[in-house]
User: Fold these one by one.
Assistant:
Number 1:
Amino acid sequence: MKNTILVVGSVALDSVETIHGRTKRALGGSAVHFSLSASQFSPVKMVGVVGEDFPEKYRGYLKRRNICLEGLEVNPGKTFHWVGRYDRDFKNAETIATELNVFRHFKPKLNGDHARCGVLFLANIDPDLQRQVLDQMGRPRLVACDTMNYWISLKKPSLLKLLKKVDILFVNEEEARQLTGEYNLIKSARQIMKMGPRGIIVKRGDAGAMLFFKDNVLSIPAHPVEKVVDPTGAGDTFAGGFMGYLAAAPDWKNFDVIRRAMSYGTVMSSFNVEDFSTKSVGTITKSKICSRFDKYVDALHIR
Amino acid sequence: MKNTILVVGSVALDSVETIHGRTKRALGGSAVHFSLSASQFSPVKMVGVVGEDFPEKYRGYLKRRNICLEGLEVNPGKTFHWVGRYDRDFKNAETIATELNVFRHFKPKLNGDHARCGVLFLANIDPDLQRQVLDQMGRPRLVACDTMNYWISLKKPSLLKLLKKVDILFVNEEEARQLTGEYNLIKSARQIMKMGPRGIIVKRGDAGAMLFFKDNVLSIPAHPVEKVVDPTGAGDTFAGGFMGYLAAAPDWKNFDVIRRAMSYGTVMSSFNVEDFSTKSVGTITKSKICSRFDKYVDALHIR
């Protein structure tokens, strides 16, 4: 199962308000956004936990995208529920409520199939849990992880232990700076590389993304979007497109492959922000993805 | 003089402090930053005003870059002096003092050679003065202008009159939003196009730049810079590279030409921020520019 991606992360119900409307207990969570995006490119198995209230229709929605839910535990209690709001500039999400519910006691358990996956994505959860997952794995050929400011302040030693075993780290600008104390992103990424990862991806929202891979530095723009409806999950959707494309490639360390993966991540996240919850990425066709990819890449072919 | 650029704007002495040091009365001003950048590509004539204190060495520095200073008036009094400071994130300049001095009564006067220039760049000055300059011109084949929040709030009617006669407008994100009341940059640019310009360039600092030209939308990243020393003049340096390259091209309306011009603007501004004042752009060789251009463009050739 060289090309199969195992993702471990949150499965949530999101109630989100933006200038374009609101959702109530819509499908969300890092593992969900990642999976819907990655499954456009590679097989995905999800490990997560939901409560007894998790709607059957959401389960069907994910399965129809060929996402394996054998690792989706159902525990007594309620599903993780996030309530948030965005201003019209969509820069920062204001958290109104975080009801962890069953997610509070999430202990990822892998079965034999999970452990044999060739690619692992550790979405943003407690770095100790991320490491426990990694320890249960066979010999994945590609391991990537995400994290957040919360873990960097509260569990830095655990995170640093994890980073030693990780190929690619996803962060945003603030997290890169927080992790290293270095303001300049190039210098910061170089310092993070010394902690273990050979690839760093800095997600910058509508300013695009930067990739640091060995000696290479690549900055690419976001795909311009005329109507941003809901940016929730854009980062995980980016990671999904990126990892999904890499997992399908024979040699993920080839820089041309990685640049294409960055572009697919960009394109997938541009779809994500165009509608609430998973509405856009969960229903998009491969031909729409390819056509936006071509348009994106062609615009940058400056000659 | 089809390819000669006339620039009208400020010539200043800048005292700037950043985390990397400080300058005292160093060469600055929008017309200066623009000219040093544009003169790498096309002949430039400058119209501006300085006081009797303007150092002879600065005059020589500009002349050595083949910038025509016949239109640089010397008036009794002191040269425009700006005192500013940047935080370590370089996002916003804090103005400590603005001593307009002779610039307060600047009335641009064009001679016959100026009026026959094929390309005009109206750097950020009072839109009434910008319009007076335009009225003195023959039939320039390309007119571009810059502006700022101050004129948008205080002299919007004058600015709107000017925009009717302008081909390309340079703004930053906030100015685009302020001018239209529209937050989304694509929508905002489309509204600005209805005011006259067929091309809008939105300068976004380290997030790169966006170009709107007729139906085309192009977003390009900044060239990653490892040590930002002083961003003063980066926007005018961008405009200089962009306009300098366009002026030298047989058909500036060709989109491939415009995309290359955007890239040269990006590259020139990346040099600008690497040193104080005009130290980097004023001394850079054409071969260094070309080599960074090739590197920048190649990195974006995703295939």
Number 2:
Amino acid sequence: MTSLEHVSCRVRGIRGPTNGTKDASQKNVIDLSSGDSQKAGLRPLSFIRQVLAGCVYPPLLEDRTFPVDVRQRSETLLDACEERSVGSYTDSSGLDHVRHSIAEFITSRDGVPCSASNVFISGGSQRALMVMVKLLAGTEWDFPTGVLTPMPPPLTLPMLLDEAGVSLEPYRLNKDHKWAVNVDELYRTLTTARWRCKPRAIFISNPSNPTGHVQSRKSIQEVIRFAAAAGLLLLVDEVYQEYVFGDGVEFISYKKILFEMGPPYSDTVEMASFYSISSIGECGLRAGFMELVNIDPRVMHFVDTMLCTDISTPVMGQLALDLMVKPPKPGDASYHTYTEEKKHVENTLKWNCWRACEVLNNLPGVSCESAVGGVYLYPCVNVPVAVVTQAEEREVEAGALYCDLLMEEQAVLIGPGCSCGPPAGTCHFRLCILVSSDILEEALSRIQNFHRGLLESNPEM
Amino acid sequence: MTSLEHVSCRVRGIRGPTNGTKDASQKNVIDLSSGDSQKAGLRPLSFIRQVLAGCVYPPLLEDRTFPVDVRQRSETLLDACEERSVGSYTDSSGLDHVRHSIAEFITSRDGVPCSASNVFISGGSQRALMVMVKLLAGTEWDFPTGVLTPMPPPLTLPMLLDEAGVSLEPYRLNKDHKWAVNVDELYRTLTTARWRCKPRAIFISNPSNPTGHVQSRKSIQEVIRFAAAAGLLLLVDEVYQEYVFGDGVEFISYKKILFEMGPPYSDTVEMASFYSISSIGECGLRAGFMELVNIDPRVMHFVDTMLCTDISTPVMGQLALDLMVKPPKPGDASYHTYTEEKKHVENTLKWNCWRACEVLNNLPGVSCESAVGGVYLYPCVNVPVAVVTQAEEREVEAGALYCDLLMEEQAVLIGPGCSCGPPAGTCHFRLCILVSSDILEEALSRIQNFHRGLLESNPEM
């Protein structure tokens, strides 16, 4: 995991909290830096796992080990695999059956037709995004390709753009308006970017990773009009579409609004939207998909070819995607359990959001805007001056040093974010709240001990 | 699958066989072009699937659904996963537990210590190979990096080198000596290559994909001495090490021989060797690994970082790797079944090799050297003159056209290989024999009908 990488640069010299906490080496590490909910104590959905177990070892389907709808789904999915085996390769863009299930899900979600031929399955949404970005990068221009990128961005996005050889052109999300997208800022970024690159796409995360903002219909319309005017491809991360919990807030897809707006938008604005199995916690199975809208069929052919280099997306992940977009229906044997388990996750997330904000906002020098969607909080911390001074001496970011110390002293991993300065040393942190409430409570307690301890034990600086 | 791609260029104008065969559209497609044994009718190993099912849905471990050793292995593997879930991410280079199992397997295979820290798990051996090739490509030289590459190569290797921006420097395998590696040819290739690139590695496939050759101890020693003299990294594809069936032929790993040779070879020659779960037929689970030998620790750090871009190898595949390298032992409840199932696969492969050679060598204009290892045959076919003429008119390769026609008329997929000319139109085909014997028999029958029909129905050309 990349998330552990910054830890390898160990930190010495600043006294940590001394108020009776155990040394971190005696504690289990709590990782709130990544959106890995099962690692953080949330349980998988039984229906998903039962169907997958039946597909892995089909003799389980011969008796009543599993409910009848589980057995039926396993049989259907096995029929979709080559020779009924999850061990066979699939087409590079995924199993036809699963692509059709996804297309049905999108059609029903948006009330706008989606064709399975526009759906591409890959080993996680990042893989699909990389294919699109590499396609953009592959032009004859001497000028590099630019991608308008939100600040703060999802954790791995800058690295991905860098690897693809594409220029990251930052647009600031509006912190003073709950991290909304500001269309004036988009135009400003575009104008600046044109001096140094050929801007070809804009990346949007909605619900936002990591700010927890969810865009309104009006905001999405503005972004679509901007993309149309600027001739940019929309790269829309809608991975956390299931997780919207703010009062009166709803998720509306870019696709839905694009088609509400009608021509010329609905038949010209190019878009790729991304979704992932990580959103049901099954990160380790590795699968995601994208829908392409208004993309030239010749480009779609290249997408297929580029996905070929992966040979085949993990089949277990593909089957889990099918189950994610087509869960049990009322009347199915597994419906009740499934619904209860889903509800538990949603309630946990909502509670965690409230609880974490309460604790963090009570800490001196910490403020945390409540999220209305997604799985992250993005609090702002006035890093104690002792840490800022040391960070300057070591020529590292104060936020990164704060994270290292928190890991060293309390075995809690959070991710450093953008600066919120001035003053220097004021910065954001990303903190995943899709975790079990027990674990969150323990993590918050450790963060409190650490932060208060740091303030108390370094009064001289 | 890339294997279907060339089919999209449909072919018209040549009369196919007319001897009463059904139209291909009424037949199921038999794919002998890729090494996907489960797609081709071989069954998965029960032990592997039972353990995986237990890991996917742990309540299955609470009763006697599975044998005791299966339940124990599932428990052990669950303990190795974060929070005992296959849905959690793992470290980018793989689960520690599995890396240790692999290291034990290699140590025991070679009698030479292997450290788990030198083992890197990835989503298939191709992913690991790509990381190594990209590392090689990343130099400051204006000159491109070159990789000495066997002709014929494994199917996807040229595409992979091309994607990495590396120059493919071909060395011919010696057809007159059962496709052995000829060290004089290696020196000739190296000398030529130096005019246009900086050669930095040599790729070897042993047992060979697609020729079926298995290198002798002496041949491996020669290649190692060559790599040492030329300062090349050895990239060794040992994916089919389990499949050696020629009388008196055995698989010996490059690592074992490198250490037999002692210093300076054993402590200076850099090597990456690759293995994959595809070799037990579980292609769809996507996992493989490489062992790095004599690689600078700083480079190993980069390897880790580059594997990070995949975030995490599919967990189900990683667990299957563990089972592949640590199968049931004598006395274990699953030992007998596992051994019988493995024996069945080995016997099938050996029988298929004999049977396919018998049928192919009886066809006019076809000759097929028997393989002694691996999962492919590589017959040479004098493509009928009717096809050669048409191919010239269409500016396509005669071999590719022959494959297209075979697919169109008989729904059998085989892959075109290198030319065996002169005369023009004499070329090789790759044909996977790790398939069920029934399916192979049907495929051979269709190939016979096609080839004889083509000869009979185009007498005028």
